[in-house]
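## retry 2 of 3
previous attempt timed out at serialization; input unchanged, resubmitting
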Amino acid sequence: EIRVPLLFNDGQPVPESLLVTTFRELREKFGAASWETQILHGAWEHEGTLYHDNLTRFFVEVADSPTHREFFTQFKEQLKVRFKQIDIRVTSHDVDVI
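## retry succeeded, writing output
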């Protein structure tokens, strides 16, 4: 699960092309991906400044492997630059597919 902002920290909207590029990269890398369009509202503090976020979420379901973890570690760094963020939240969850 990857959460990215819909607004840059200065309040300007993130161009949809950045979201589309992120989705396309995940789909091409893993063969399938999902993109949730519901807005997630969040707030966090960094060095005394309170930030409010509107976020969207991308999902991919892949095996937990060192290769995948390395990809997501590197991808996170790319996303921090792409979305001009101090950090990007990337989380991993066990999934049972029935």
